[in-house]
């Protein structure tokens, strides 16, 4: 003989003041918690927005060798430096981006200009993103990944 159990769980949440931005939850009248829209503000002040990536454009294919690659982005007001992350396809494991495997390929912090040049590793895809860092050392929002590739 099988016995069926039914559990009834009641959860009461007391929210005095809840305003969490940047993908958080916010309390509406009536006690309902709803997802807040993305906002660049925080309790400590303004979070820096992601820099606009200018060059290379997403999807650019290069055929030059050596693979001297130049990344350019727009200045973010109130930033003191930038961090660039470069990812490589096939560099850490086959058929995957390094970051998809939980690894970093290249991370370049402390850049004070809005341009960075480097030699890319091979005839394969790469991608990059950038974020500003404020004078307080707090990292701003990261840009989206922008892809490029080399044919030789």
> Would you tell me which CATH topology of the domain at 46-150 applies?
Immunoglobulin-like
Q: Overall pLDDT, averaged? A: 78
Helix content: under 10%
Number of strands: 12
Range of strand content? 35-45%
Contiguous runs where pLDDT drops below 50 for at least 5 residues: 1-43
CATH architecture of the domain at 46-150: Sandwich
- Which term fits the overall shape? globular
Top CATH class of the domain at 46-150: Mainly Beta
In short:
With 152 residues, the chain is an all-beta fold.
Explain what the structure shows.
The protein is an all-beta fold. The protein has strands at 25-27, 33-35, 41-42, 45-46, 53-55, 60-62, 68-73, 79-88, 106-111, 115-119, 125-134, 146-150. It has a domain at 46-150: Immunoglobulins (Immunoglobulin-like), CATH 2.60.40. It is built from no helices and twelve strands. The strands form four sheets. A five-stranded mixed β-sheet has the order 6-12-11-8-9, with no helix packed on it. Strands 5-7-10 form a three-stranded antiparallel β-sheet, with no helix packed on it. A hairpin with a 2-residue loop joins strand 3 (41-42) and strand 4 (45-46). It starts with 24 loop residues before the first strand and ends with a strand.
